[in-house]
Every structure is written in structure tokens, then in C-alpha cells.
Amino acid sequence: LDYQHVQVPFEITLWIMLASLAKIGFHLYNKLPSVVPESCLLIFVGLIMGGIIYGLNDRSPPVMDSDIFFLYLLPPIVLDAGYFMPSRPFFENIGTILLYAVVGTIWNVFGIGFSLYGICQVKAFRLQDVSLLHNLLFGSLIAAVDPVAVLAVFEEIHVNEKLHILVFGESLLNDAVTVVLYKLFRSFCEMPTIKSVDIFAGVGKFFVVGLGGVLVGLSFGFTAAFTTRFTKDIRVIEPLFVFLYSYLSYLTAEMFHLSGIVAIISCAMGMKRYVEANISLKSHTTVKYFMKMWSSVSDTLIFIFLGVSTIGENHEWNWPYICFTVIFCLIWRALGVLVLTFFVNRFHVNTVTSKDQFIIAYGGLRGAICFSLVFLLPDFRRKKLFIAATTVVILFTVFIQGMTIRPLVDLLAVKRKRESAPTVGEQIHIRFLDHLLAGIEDISGHWGQYYWKDKLEYFNSKYLQKILLREYDQPKSSIVLLYEKLERKHAMELAQAGQLGHGPAHPSFLCFAFLCSSSDRTVLRDQKLEDTLNPDVLNNMQEILARNLYRIRRTGPAYNRHTLPGDSEPTEQAKEILILRHKSL
Amino acid sequence: SLSREDFQRIPELAINPLGDRIINAFFPEGEDQVNFRGFMRTLAHFRPIEDNEKSKDQNGPEPLNSRSNKLHFAFRLYDLDKDDKISRDELLQVLRMMVGVNISDEQLGSIADRTIQEADQDGDSAISFAEFVKVLEKVDVEQKMSIRFLH
């Protein structure tokens, strides 16, 4: 039995297998994911595993190594987030996002740090040896909202696009601030004296870290786009370039002590347009699927490891400190959101409503990043206290906030709804108005270009496209591509039916072919006109309408962890509408 | 000035069920070009109603973005033959555009009948503008039909 030889890869594969099997298990019970978010279940599985290992070995189970987390587990998730980030809402709200990410995080860090220092001064808690600097250091790592946890929970609650992008964008971008503050305070801990020059250096460092990350990311992104220009003859390795360049940008940024997360996001966003135009359709699908797969696996592993690492002897339980940490996290986040939103709303016409504010504040979940950062702390007397506090905060936010956010959202939404059910006429007219509005929004969106976006588009078409794209023609939108795909398919069907060359197909053929292939026809043949007054029939009608009226586009979040964009119902709907209009032309 | 082709180049309008009608709403009667002024007039219907406008001068002409004018705009999208009534056929046409292929014509017909029945008060089997307004009285039209053009 040669276990030593294969031990490391074997164990890694076993962990990944466990993670994937756990995921299958959850989705077997349909009701469970709606009540308990997946992240909670995964942590729970991790807790069980940790308990088993602890019981068997009688020593602490392997703690998640910070290196493994930061180098292997985090990049796929952030890459997935950056690649599939809907860029238009992101850039429209970039001001608000940056405000929340930068100013909000700084507010939280100092708020939590100072208030915890105040708690430490109370003699009864026996915490006097925790210095201000240590508290600020702790504050800096606990204040940051975690993208992994936020994503996992927000998927379950369907909030409007703007809110989703705000919380999502904030959780991704606050990494730059967290990195700077964490490293700053850590170096302060080691320096004997702190001069004000150092503080200014810290502020300057923030800009360097953030902007440097963006530059590194963009340069790698454009290099990737440039490389794919020449891959016409070796299509098979095209997907590899996307991943290699993104990972390189992350590692390079980390090497220079810049923000790796910001780098990988800007790399993904920068290269997306050009790479998608250059690589083949199949490579494109491969890229998308692999990204989703890796980020899914990473996500699951992180939560399981979180659970496993919780068990063990790493903790020092000082309950007052821990409780106050949790309380202060909540309070400072709520205050921060309130104050910042006040400023945001004064400059924008599009206000962030109080319900949105509640969700932003309540949805500030902490996750694995805090956990890894706390393990990276230098060893000092009170390190275990911090580890314990971090663990409790993470478990609290993920379990309690994660589980209750959905009922709370529903509660808040239900209050605004009307008491009586809408009549059939209202249903139709409301949907009519929704479609109308969606159309007008699209029209005005396209003609209401903003100044910088205009400039960027100009720069893009004049220079970037010529260098980075292989075939220099107008990049086609996905809708046009879909339409072309349908046309091709139709032409193939006609050719197969032997009708090509007999002129354009009769519209009814297209309609007939389509209808025959569509499944799930609910036809009520016994409907008579007199029945329209029957209440049962009325309910039926409303149900039918609710099921069959076309949905307006973009009713749900554009980013979803588990499905590819364009893979779900809206494309079916789009196909139907296109065919109907084609028929009527 | 803009022509219909310019509008049709917007991909999202291609998959909007009411795409053609929305485009037609921009063009004045019988013309194929719309200039900037006309374009803005149409979009002005969708300006949000601000509170201070409600108390503004009642003597002047009603602003384009009042509730009544917003609803009138929507009404005109239904009413193709401009007889100030939505007949059963016009309603059926719109319904067919908005609904999936899984519904039969009979079902659609009964839905249309039901809609007219609910709204019709003067018994002419068609929906007049006043009846249309009445159906939507509980709906927050001001909020629904507003676009925040500035950020």
C-alpha cells in the first residue's frame, strides 16, 4: 500500500469530491436551499467533518492555510465575479460603489477599532493589554465585507439589479482598502514609534495599491486580448489564455503588494470584450463553463474549510469582547450606510431607498477573507482571542444574517403590496406598461451616453479595436448573434426539408415548425364564453397570464453563481419573440 | 433626424414584444423621420412627476409628464386606428404580442373578453380612455412610467 506516494493529490481530490457531493445533496431536497442558504449548510458540513477529525485524532484539524486560500481558492471566485460582472450597471453606479467601498470601509475600521479599544479599557473585562493598535488591526480585518459570502446569500434573495450591483461591487472593491489598512497597521505594530509621515505614507499607499492593481490588471487583460488575436489555428488552447493571464495578473499584483483582487477584476473586465470577439464560439463556452466550475468548487471548499477550522483549540473565549465585536460590527455598518447614503442621495436623482439601505447594511456579511487574515496575524499574546472573535462574527453573519435576510426582504416587500389581487385587465395593462418602459429605457439608454463613456468608446474604436481584434468589424451583441443563430438553424432545417431554393419560407411553416417543437402546451379546449364570469375560470386566467406573459428583460440579477448568463428562460422567450416578429414582418 | 432603421438597430428592442409599437410612437402621423424635438417630446412623457409641479400653475397647459398624459401615451399604443377606443381586436393584437405561444386563440379571446368586461362601463364592448384610466387608478402610474434620466 503506497499511500505516501499519492497522499497529497489524493487528499485534495477527496476534499473536492466531498464538496461536490455535498452540493448534490443539498439540491436533492428542494425546500432546503430556500430556507437555509447554501453557505450555511456547507459550514455545517465542515463543522461535522472537523468534529470527526478532532474526535479521531484528538488534535486540532488542519487549519485552512492562508496561503492556500489566497493563492488557490480565492482567485477563481473573484475571476468569475469580474468576468460575468454586468459592466453597464457597474459603471453607472461606480461612484456610489467606490464611496461605499472606500469611505465605508475606512469608517467601519476606525469605528470598530476605537469602540473596541474603549471596551478594552473597562477593567472588569480583563482586556487591558490589548492595545489600540491591536484593536485597529483587528478592526481592519473584520470590517471588510466578503464577496464570497455576499454572493452566496444574495443569490437566494432576488433584489433589484442596482442594489445587487452596489453590494456586490462594494464587497469586491473594498479589498484594496482592507489590504492597505491591514498591512499598514501590521507594520505599525512592529515599528517602535509612529511618525505622522508614516500615516501620510499610508494614505498615499492606498492610492498606489488601488490604482496599481487596476493598471496591472488592465495590462494583463490587453496582453491576453492581443494574444488571442493570433490563436486562429490553435483553437484548442484558447481558453487556457484567459485563465493564465488572469491568474498571472493576480499573482503579479500580490507580488508587488498591490491589490490582487482589483487586478484580477480589471483584467477580466478589460479583456472580456476583445477576447470574446477573437476566440471561437466553442472556446467561449468552455471558458464560461470552466470559470463557473472552478468558482463553484472554490466556493464550496472555502465554506467547508471554514467549518473545519472552527473546531479545535485555537480559540480563547472572552465573551464580552466577542459579543461587543458582533454588536459593533452591526452598529457601525448600519451607521456607515445611513450616513453615506445621505450623501449619495443628495447628488443623484436615483435615490437609494430606505429598504435598499437596510439590505445593504444587513447584507454586509463577513467571510473567509477575514478568517484567513486573522490567521496571518503575527503571533502575539491575544491572537487566539481575535481568532475566536472572528469565527463568531463570521458564523453569526453567515448563519443568522444569511438565513434571516430573505424573510426580512419578503416582509419589507410585502408591506408595500396592495391588499387585493389585481384584476385580469390590470395584470395585462401593468405588464404592457412594463414592456413599454423597458423599451423606452433601452432607447434612452442608448442615446444618453455619458461623457466618459463616449470618450472611452471613441478611444476603443479608434485604437484598441484595431490592435486587439482579429477581424475588425462591429462587435455583435448577443441578441444579434442569437438571431443569426436562429436564421442559420432555420436555413438548415429548410435545406433538410428540401425547400431551400424555393424562395423564402412561408411564415406559417416557421410557425408550425416552431410550435411542433415546443413542449408543454396547455390548451383548454372546453372554454366557453359564458364561463368568463365563473370565479374558477377567472383564477385560471390569472394563472395562465402569470405563467405566459413575457417577462420584461432584466427582472433578476444579471449575475448568478450557478448558471451561465443566457442559459435560462429569457433566451427562450427572446427566441419566441424574435420568431413572432419575423413572422409579422 | 432619426429614421425607423436607427431604432431597429437597438438589439434590446428587437426582443421587446412591443418593440414595433414603441418605435412607431416616436414618429408623428405618416412621417418616417423624427427630429430631436419630436424625440424629446415623446421621451418627456416619461419624466418623473416632481412634487413642486403639482401645485404649479393650474391654468397653463398640462405638462407632458402628468399622469393623464402618461396614460394617454400608453392608450395610443393600444389604439392603432385612433378612434379613442380599444376594441376587442386591438386588445387581442396586443395580447398576442405579449403572450407566449402556449396560449390558444380561444383562451386569448376569453381573456380579452374578460378584460373588456371588467373595464367597460358604457356597454360599447370597447375600452374608452376614461375607462382605461379607471382600470389603472390603483396602480402607481407616476412611478411606473417614469425614467430617471439623470444619474
From TrEMBL, chain A:
<keyword id="KW-0813">Transport</keyword>
<keyword id="KW-0739">Sodium transport</keyword>
<feature type="transmembrane region" description="Helical">
    <location>
        <begin position="35"/>
        <end position="56"/>
    </location>
</feature>
<keyword id="KW-1133">Transmembrane helix</keyword>
<keyword id="KW-1003">Cell membrane</keyword>
<feature type="transmembrane region" description="Helical">
    <location>
        <begin position="132"/>
        <end position="153"/>
    </location>
</feature>
<dbReference type="GO" id="GO:0015385">
    <property type="term" value="F:sodium:proton antiporter activity"/>
</dbReference>
<dbReference type="InterPro" id="IPR001970">
    <property type="entry name" value="NHE-1-like"/>
</dbReference>
<feature type="transmembrane region" description="Helical">
    <location>
        <begin position="289"/>
        <end position="307"/>
    </location>
</feature>
<protein>
    <recommendedName>
        <fullName>Sodium/hydrogen exchanger</fullName>
    </recommendedName>
</protein>
<feature type="transmembrane region" description="Helical">
    <location>
        <begin position="247"/>
        <end position="268"/>
    </location>
</feature>
<comment type="similarity">
    <text>Belongs to the monovalent cation:proton antiporter 1 (CPA1) transporter (TC 2.A.36) family.</text>
</comment>
<feature type="transmembrane region" description="Helical">
    <location>
        <begin position="386"/>
        <end position="409"/>
    </location>
</feature>
<dbReference type="InterPro" id="IPR006153">
    <property type="entry name" value="Cation/H_exchanger_TM"/>
</dbReference>
<feature type="transmembrane region" description="Helical">
    <location>
        <begin position="68"/>
        <end position="85"/>
    </location>
</feature>
<feature type="domain" description="Cation/H+ exchanger transmembrane">
    <location>
        <begin position="17"/>
        <end position="409"/>
    </location>
</feature>
<dbReference type="GO" id="GO:0015386">
    <property type="term" value="F:potassium:proton antiporter activity"/>
</dbReference>
<dbReference type="InterPro" id="IPR018422">
    <property type="entry name" value="Cation/H_exchanger_CPA1"/>
</dbReference>
<feature type="transmembrane region" description="Helical">
    <location>
        <begin position="359"/>
        <end position="380"/>
    </location>
</feature>
<keyword id="KW-0812">Transmembrane</keyword>
<dbReference type="GO" id="GO:0016323">
    <property type="term" value="C:basolateral plasma membrane"/>
</dbReference>
<feature type="domain" description="Sodium/hydrogen exchanger regulatory region">
    <location>
        <begin position="530"/>
        <end position="585"/>
    </location>
</feature>
UniProtKB/TrEMBL annotation, chain B:
<dbReference type="InterPro" id="IPR018247">
    <property type="entry name" value="EF_Hand_1_Ca_BS"/>
</dbReference>
<dbReference type="InterPro" id="IPR051875">
    <property type="entry name" value="Calcineurin_B_homologous"/>
</dbReference>
<keyword id="KW-0472">Membrane</keyword>
<dbReference type="GO" id="GO:0005737">
    <property type="term" value="C:cytoplasm"/>
</dbReference>
<keyword id="KW-1003">Cell membrane</keyword>
<dbReference type="InterPro" id="IPR002048">
    <property type="entry name" value="EF_hand_dom"/>
</dbReference>
<keyword id="KW-0813">Transport</keyword>
<keyword id="KW-0653">Protein transport</keyword>
<protein>
    <submittedName>
        <fullName>CHP1 protein</fullName>
    </submittedName>
</protein>
<keyword id="KW-0519">Myristate</keyword>
<keyword id="KW-0539">Nucleus</keyword>
<dbReference type="GO" id="GO:0005886">
    <property type="term" value="C:plasma membrane"/>
</dbReference>
<keyword id="KW-0677">Repeat</keyword>
<keyword id="KW-0597">Phosphoprotein</keyword>
<dbReference type="GO" id="GO:0015031">
    <property type="term" value="P:protein transport"/>
</dbReference>
<keyword id="KW-0963">Cytoplasm</keyword>
<keyword id="KW-0106">Calcium</keyword>
<feature type="domain" description="EF-hand">
    <location>
        <begin position="107"/>
        <end position="142"/>
    </location>
</feature>
<dbReference type="GO" id="GO:0005509">
    <property type="term" value="F:calcium ion binding"/>
</dbReference>
<dbReference type="Pfam" id="PF13499">
    <property type="entry name" value="EF-hand_7"/>
</dbReference>
<keyword id="KW-0449">Lipoprotein</keyword>
<keyword id="KW-0479">Metal-binding</keyword>
